[in-house]
Specification:
Layout: H1 2-6, E1 7-12, E2 15-22, H2 25-36, E3 43-50, H3 56-75, E4 84-89, E5 92-99, H4 102-114, E6 120-127, E7 161-162, E8 169-170
Parallel strand pairs: 2-3, 5-6
Antiparallel strand pairs: 1-2, 4-5, 7-8
């Protein structure tokens, strides 16, 4: 449970962006596997870092930065802000969503970069005109393994067992 509290999840149109910090590589792999095991997932973007816990000050600052970016998008009438999801981890802003066109996406990136103390902007925004990644096929069902039938008259083969008490060969 502590692992899930350190991983931030953003989902848009079957695309999953994982960000945050975990203490062990196994936790990072577990989060990615859990994302892929969810029905309807088309793409998983893994931005989880293996690092020690972040302090309360860092977490608070990241929350303030994400809200400042969101406010800039919300007041800009040339941007459909509801089409974007914003997360901030260690002063890096992660964007995922759907842009109406390249000009809108560039405005979103520029707004995020203009917020003081934002170190970098990682964007996973697709254009409305871009096709969605295909949904992966369902996992193949493992074939059922049936015991091999022993043909009549094949006594004495390596697959037949001999009862030591009676000396009879069992199929």
């Amino acid at each position: 449970r502590a692992v899930l509290q350190q991983v931030h999840l953003q989902v848009q149109e079957g695309r999953v962006l994982l960000s945050g910090h975990v203490q062990k590589p196994e936790h990072r792999l577990g989060a990615v596997k859990a994302a892929w095991d969810t029905a309807g997932v088309r793409e998983v973007i893994n931005q989880i870092k293996v690092a020690p816990d972040r302090g309360l000050g860092t977490v608070s600052q990241d929350e303030v930065l994400a809200r400042r970016v969101w406010l800039k998008l919300f007041v800009d009438r040339a941007i459909r802000a509801n089409n974007y999801s914003i997360e901030c981890i260690d002063s890096v802003v992660y964007l995922i969503g759907v842009g109406q066109d390249q000009a809108e996406v560039q405005r979103v990136i520029d707004h995020a970069r203009d917020v003081p103390y934002v170190r970098a902007v990682e964007t996973y925004v697709r254009l409305k005109s871009d096709p969605l990644p295909p949904e992966p096929p369902p996992p193949a069902k493992a074939p059922e393994i049936m015991p091999a039938e022993i043909p009549p008259g094949s006594q004495g083969t390596a697959s037949a067992a001999t009862d030591t008490a009676t000396g009879e060969t069992a199929p």
